[in-house]
């Protein structure tokens, strides 16, 4: 085709193109309207359309607006989602059509939400729901959820129920387990006393936690209704009894002070009778107080000397005749440096402390107790102040136990009672329970209070007597005695031939070395000579198992045992990847023993080589003894601390929690070798001198007479005390002439089979090779007492050979 026949193509002008676009938009709009009309017809049916032919109807329940709050658009996403679901629920329940739902939404919107609704054109409920969620229901990022959860705390006037439910919702939004959820809920509670109380309790789910919190609140409210006890002290009452404090803590004093007298004012049941009994101390009239008295204020009068112009507290006769008669309070801010103030460290955390030799216990503020990161155990104990030994001044909230360091003097397992922050003027108050420890000595030199180890030499002590009167004394706080109970001969086993004089000597010896005996787990020793390591084979994986199934009764028993272990510092909670199961076994006394199944851990543990004591040499060395003393270590394995790297490997799982051992437990592969190593280190010199014989945790002291035994026992006590080991007094025997040891009976230099011979006599007839081998192993232990034992047992031994049929006939029975 030639170029002459090609038609000319001209581009549209701008106006023509603009007009064409508008026409296309109009057509598109028309199609959208037609589609909307179709949707409207489809949405005219209720939101819960039915497939049957029932007549369509809808209902409007009375006062429906009361069930739906007005939505402003400023609410959080979860509130907006809940608001939308509430409306949809009402629509489904009452079978509302789409138009009614949109009208109902419009009538329950305000502010920004209403403006948003009016700016849109909603032709169906599905369109509204989609756009509403897009704008108001925003999916938060996980980091935002964590920030919201951490920052959520109870407000000043907010109820516990409102805070609890909102906090739990936020915690579940970040998928926390219950133990972590519990910690975050208690951290945000406004009342520190409530949080400390709940921390010491046992909870299995949020319902139990909520019940405990509400029960504490109920008791607190009830205490607020009791008659108020006003304490007369030398503290500014206007600051002590401010309105804000009395409304929240009406039943608790706001200062930890000593008192000289206490009066109780009981309010009358009605306001009229209460008003009529109010007495004015200015005119002695009724119906008003001295502040509102219309008569002139009478001059001050001393109740001690009856003179005017001063009160009893400033009476000059008191200063001259009875110096420092009234007990005052040690408070922060006293003029001059306080020599009894100390910087102390608890669990490597530093605090401001005060030495109070008048207090029988050590106290710590609740805020400081949390900073120590030590296990906080519930412990409600009454604490008394000077002047009133019947009514407790305050009550402890809990207790912690940990390492305390003052002036370089380090002590382990120091107990601190936790009190509210305003109860004591410093973070930590050090009392007699620490000052009276045998390894502690202290003295005052010039203006310095010096704390040292008891075995240190003091070159000189300067005592400067200050005759000036300061009128300041330390407040005395008294609790039920925390000192160790004295021992008597009734607490140990005594030989029948021991006379009364010898018993008195033994009583003195026992109490002289009282520190080497433990009557309970709290007194259990812990050596600092060795620590146990657990070395695993290369490429070993953490042992992680599920807890064994237990009954509800066994579950409670396990919880009781673990709680006691936690209080004693034997175990602590952990998040270790290791988890070995536990099982309860019956003890000889009918009680339960909690055992950890360490078989999986032991299978990948590298064995340690260490010589075990030889039974024959032990027995032969005791044959010359005429009198014996037997000592038994109290939970001997638990007196060896674990290395930090080994603690997580000993973690065990119960139906309620995961714990790790702080000390060496029973059942570990290398525990016997580690314990023998410790005993050789502690008693090695005495063993070589022939003073003592030791097999695992059984310590035997042979002697020729009572005096020889006492001298040897004291040397053993000294060695155990230096090693910080403790004995079980109920299993210790003194002055016995007959001894059961390692299954044998030793008496008058002769060795006989022990009580286990009865087990052999009553042993049931073996039914297979396994039972027969057990029987032969038991009898072989006493083969030294049976002549020609090998010949006698030969027919039975032959049955244990491999690939032989099991034939148990009369020949075998006779043997």
Automatic annotation (TrEMBL):
All residue ranges annotated as the CCHC-type domain in the record: 279-295
Keyword Transferase: yes
Stretches with biased composition (Basic and acidic residues): 234-246
Stored InterPro entries: Aspartic_peptidase_AS, DNA/RNA_pol_sf, Peptidase_aspartic_dom_sf, Retrovirus_Pol_polyprotein, Rev_trsase/Diguanyl_cyclase, RT_dom, Znf_CCHC, Znf_CCHC_sf
Xref: Gene3D superfamilies: 3.30.70.270, Acid Proteases, HIV Type 1 Reverse Transcriptase, subunit A, domain 1, Zinc finger, CCHC-type
GO BP terms in the entry: DNA biosynthetic process; proteolysis
Coiled coil, from the record: 14-41
Residues in Reverse transcriptase domain copies: 566-746
Top-level taxon: Eukaryota
Family annotation (CDD domains): retropepsin_like, RT_LTR
Residues covered by region (Disordered): 222-276
Stretches with biased composition (Polar residues): 247-256
Gene Ontology MF, one: aspartic-type endopeptidase activity
Keywords, sorted A to Z: Coiled coil, Endonuclease, Hydrolase, Metal-binding, Nuclease, Nucleotidyltransferase, Transferase, Zinc, Zinc-finger
Membrane-traversing stretches: none
Listed Low complexity bias regions: 257-271
Name of the protein in question: Reverse transcriptase
């Amino acid at each position: 085709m030639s170029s002459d026949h090609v038609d000319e193509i001209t581009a549209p002008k701008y106006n023509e193109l603009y007009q064409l676009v508008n026409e296309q938009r109009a057509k598109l709009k028309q199609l959208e309207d037609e589609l909307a009309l179709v949707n409207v017809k489809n949405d005219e049916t209720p939101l819960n359309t039915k497939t049957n032919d029932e007549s369509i109807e809808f209902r409007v329940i009375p006062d429906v607006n009361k069930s739906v709050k007005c939505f402003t658009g400023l609410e959080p996403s979860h509130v907006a989602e809940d608001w939308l679901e509430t409306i949809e629920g009402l629509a489904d329940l009452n079978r509302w059509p789409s138009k009614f739902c949109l009208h109902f939404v419009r009538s329950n919107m305000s502010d920004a939400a209403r403006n948003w609704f009016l700016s849109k054109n909603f032709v169906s409920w599905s369109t509204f729901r989609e756009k509403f969620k897009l704008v108001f229901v925003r999916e938060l990022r996980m980091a935002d959820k964590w920030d919201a959860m951490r920052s959520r705390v109870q407000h000043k006037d907010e109820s516990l129920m409102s805070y609890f439910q909102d906090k739990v919702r936020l915690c579940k939004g970040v998928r926390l387990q219950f133990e972590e959820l519990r910690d975050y809920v208690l951290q945000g509670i406004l009342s520190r006393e409530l949080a400390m109380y709940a921390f010491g309790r046992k909870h299995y789910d949020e319902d139990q936690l909520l019940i405990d919190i509400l029960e504490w609140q109920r008791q607190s409210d009830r205490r607020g209704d009791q008659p108020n006890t006003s304490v007369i002290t030398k503290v500014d009452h206007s600051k002590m009894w401010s309105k804000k404090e009395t409304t929240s803590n009406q039943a608790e004093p706001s200062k930890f002070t000593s008192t000289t007298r206490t009066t109780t004012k009981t309010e009358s049941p009605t306001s009229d009778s209460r008003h009529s009994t109010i007495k004015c101390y200015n005119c002695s009239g009724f119906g008003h107080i001295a502040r509102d008295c219309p008569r002139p204020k009478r001059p001050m009068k001393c109740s001690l000397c009856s003179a005017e112009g001063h009160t009893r507290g400033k009476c000059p006769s008191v200063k001259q005749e009875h110096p420092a008669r009234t007990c005052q309070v040690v408070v922060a801010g006293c003029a001059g440096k306080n020599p009894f103030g100390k910087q102390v460290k608890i669990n490597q955390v530093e605090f401001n402390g005060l030495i109070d030799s008048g207090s029988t216990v050590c106290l710590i503020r609740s805020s400081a107790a949390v900073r120590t990161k030590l296990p906080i155990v519930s412990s409600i104990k009454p604490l008394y102040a000077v002047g009133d030994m019947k009514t407790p001044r305050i009550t402890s909230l809990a207790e912690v136990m940990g390492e305390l360091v003052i002036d370089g003097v380090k002590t382990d397992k120091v107990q601190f009672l936790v009190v509210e922050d305003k109860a004591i003027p410093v973070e930590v108050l050090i009392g007699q329970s620490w000052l009276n420890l045998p390894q502690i000595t202290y003295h005052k030199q010039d203006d310095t209070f010096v704390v040292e180890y008891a075995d240190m030499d003091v070159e000189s002590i300067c005592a400067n007597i200050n005759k000036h009167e300061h009128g300041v004394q330390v407040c005395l706080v008294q609790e039920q005695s925390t000192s160790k109970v004295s021992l008597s001969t009734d607490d140990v086993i005594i030989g029948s031939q021991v006379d009364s004089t010898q018993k008195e000597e033994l009583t003195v010896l026992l109490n002289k070395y009282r520190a080497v005996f433990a009557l309970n787990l709290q007194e259990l020793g812990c050596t600092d000579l060795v620590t146990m390591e657990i070395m695993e084979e290369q490429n070993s994986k953490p042992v992680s198992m599920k807890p064994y199934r237990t009954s509800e009764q066994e579950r409670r028993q396990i919880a009781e045992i673990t709680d006691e272990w936690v209080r004693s510092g034997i175990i602590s909670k952990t998040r270790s990847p290791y988890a070995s199961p536990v099982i309860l076994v019956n003890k000889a006394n009918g009680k339960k023993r909690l055992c950890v199944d360490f078989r999986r851990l032991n299978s990948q543990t590298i064995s340690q080589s260490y010589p075990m004591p030889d039974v024959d040499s032990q027995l032969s060395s005791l044959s010359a003894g005429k009198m014996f003393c037997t000592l038994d270590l109290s939970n001997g394995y638990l007196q060896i601390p674990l290395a930090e790297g080994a603690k997580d490997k000993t973690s065990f799982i119960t139906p309620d929690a995961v714990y790790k051992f702080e000390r060496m437990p029973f059942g570990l592969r290398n525990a016997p070798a580690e314990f023998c190593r410790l005993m050789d280190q502690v008693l090695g010199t005495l063993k070589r001198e022939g003073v003592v014989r030791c097999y695992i945790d059984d310590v035997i002291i042979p002697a020729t007479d009572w005096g020889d035994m006492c001298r040897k026992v004291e040397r053993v006590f000294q060695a155990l005390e230096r090693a910080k080991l403790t004995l079980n007094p109920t299993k210790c025997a003194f002055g016995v002439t007959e001894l059961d040891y390692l299954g044998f009976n030793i008496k008058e230099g002769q060795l006989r089979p022990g009580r286990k011979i009865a087990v052999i006599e009553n042993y049931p007839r073996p039914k297979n090779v396994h039972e027969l081998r057990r029987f032969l192993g038991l009898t072989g232990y006493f083969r030294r007492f049976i002549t020609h034992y090998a010949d006698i047992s030969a027919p039975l031994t032959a049955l244990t050979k491999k690939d032989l049929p099991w034939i148990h006939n009369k020949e075998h029975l006779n043997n």
